[in-house]
Amino acid sequence: MTTADFAGRRAIVTGAAGGIGAALAAELISRGAAVVLADLSPSVTDTASALNADAADGRNVAAGLDSGATPDSRAHAWVGDVSSVADIDDLIAFADEAIDGVDMYFANAGIIGPGDLGDSDADWDTIIDVNLRAHIRAAQVLIPRWQEAGDGYFVATASAAGLLTQIGSAAYSVTKHASVGFAEWLALTYRDDGIRASVICPMGVDTDLLRAAGTSGTAQRAVTDAGQVLSPGDVATIALDAVQAGEFLILPHPEVLDMYRMKGSDYDRWLAGMSRYQARLNEQNRANEETTHAGND
Ligand SMILES: NC(=O)c1ccc[n+]([C@@H]2O[C@H](COP(=O)([O-])OP(=O)(O)OC[C@H]3O[C@@H](n4cnc5c(N)ncnc54)[C@H](O)[C@@H]3O)[C@@H](O)[C@H]2O)c1
């Protein structure tokens, strides 16, 4: 697949119960793809049903059909753990059955993980499994199939934290860097086999994950202060336009490119600037906490 034409394509989107994954699935369906929405959360079933209802409405209007007609549904829900080898096998077998194969895999499921250094190996194992190994394990199943077909597209949702850093979370920073590195390696290694890869690297997006980062005030503030918080729908549109054009690095916040260039051109200056930024955020957090405590006295 050099440039992706989505009509008739068969895609899996992981982490699709809500947030960016649900928006990617909706946008894929609106562009004519059949999609398996995968998530740990059983609510992914409701997400898929809602997408089918929306798609049916759209087609009925377009075709002048009475509402109540039942065109083929194009969203299918699968519930499981996309970081587990056994579940990935099950997910891909499910897609083979439900949508007759997999041309595109959106490795989007992710977690914010522990703040700061993390307290235990278990903390790190979980986030490495979800944010990185899930991608490797899916690719190990799909790449040989795609080599045989001469076609396939792997899209990872990493983060701007995978190019820059995530203040307040070592595990998120490290796993997102690794996710960018893995996608980059896929993109250059299998290009001649007709396989493409892209990586989506947003800053703030208005989802549950960003809200969950609120448990570590500095991490959340670092994201929301750094730039505009985009809607998942905006990110999905930008991402699929870029995939359509076959672009590797997808930056929904274009200013990330300037920050990345600045980091690459003078690493020490960038580190010093980030360290000052972190000190400022810590100071603001302390001031906020003092105000809150004073208000409670
Ligand atoms: N929201 C942001 O500001 C932001 C910014 C940059 C990157 N991202 C990345 O975008 C991706 C999507 O996150 P989101 O912001 O939409 O958050 P979200 O919490 O709405 O979505 C993540 C989904 O992944 C699912 N999930 C987690 N672990 C899973 C597993 N093992 N198996 C199956 N499903 C699993 C969750 O149930 C959830 O539905 C993540 O990789 C995240 O790191 C988010």
Topology:
Elements: E1 10-14, H1 19-30, E2 34-39, H2 44-63, E3 75-79, H3 85-99, E4 104-107, H4 121-149, E5 152-157, H5 170-189, E6 195-200, H6 208-212, H7 217-226, H8 232-244, E7 249-250, H9 255-265, H10 267-296
Parallel strand pairs: 1-2, 1-4, 2-3, 4-5, 5-6, 6-7
Helix pairs in contact: 1-2, 1-8, 3-4, 4-5, 7-10, 9-10
The site of nicotinamide-adenine-dinucleotide has 28 residues, from α1 and α6.
Briefly characterize the structure.
Keywords: Oxidoreductase. The chain has 297 residues and is of the alpha/beta class. The protein contains 10 helices and 7 strands.
Structural descriptors:
single chain, 297 residues, alpha/beta, Rossmann fold, 2 domains, seven-stranded parallel beta sheet, 10 helices, 56% helix, globular, binds nicotinamide-adenine-dinucleotide, oxidoreductase, NAD(P)-dependent dehydrogenase (Short-subunit alcohol dehydrogenase family), SDR_fam, Sc_DH/Rdtase_CS
Annotation field: number of helices: 10
- Biggest sheet, strands in spatial order? 3-2-1-4-5-6-7
Order of helices and strands: EHEHEHEHEHEHHHEHH
- Average pLDDT figure: 90
The CATH H-level superfamily of the largest domain is: NAD(P)-binding Rossmann-like Domain
Fraction in helix: 55-70%
Low-confidence parts lasting 5 or more residues at pLDDT below 50?
Answer: 60-73
Give the biggest beta sheet.
7 strands, parallel
